Amino acid sequence: MEEQTTQPIAENLGWVIPGKLAGVGKPTAEELPELQKLGIAAIVSVMDDPSNLERNL
């Protein structure tokens, strides 16, 4: 079986408005501390999925 590798969340983050607004796929709970180190203080989800109602930060 082939092993899957994932990129660090910071490499998948794209700034729309530098330092203010960024876009990224749904982060895992393990990735949240890395996002906080990058200065991300809030996450807004636009996914139509009730699992996004969990508070992780």
In short:
The protein has helices at residues 9-12, 32-37; strands at residues 14-17, 21-23. With 57 residues, the chain is of the alpha+beta class.
Describe what you observe in this structure.
By secondary structure, this protein is of the alpha+beta class. The protein has one domain (9-53). 18% of the residues lie in helices and 12% in strands. It has two helices and two strands. The chain has helices at 9-12, 32-37; strands at residues 14-17, 21-23. Strands 1-2 form a two-stranded antiparallel ribbon. The mean pLDDT is 81.
What is the strand content?
5-15%
Percent range of helical residues: 10-25%
Sheet with the most strands, sense and barrel status: 2 strands, antiparallel
Which runs of at least 5 residues are low in confidence (pLDDT < 50)?
none
* Total domains: 1
Overall average residue pLDDT: 81
Helix and strand string, N-terminal first?
HEEH
Please state the structural category. alpha+beta
Termini gap: 35 Å
Radius of gyration: 13 Å
Taken from the alpha-carbon principal axes, the silhouette is globular
* Spatial strand order of the main sheet: 1-2
Number of helices: 2
Can you count the beta strands?
2
Please write out the topology.
Blueprint: H1 9-12, E1 14-17, E2 21-23, H2 32-37
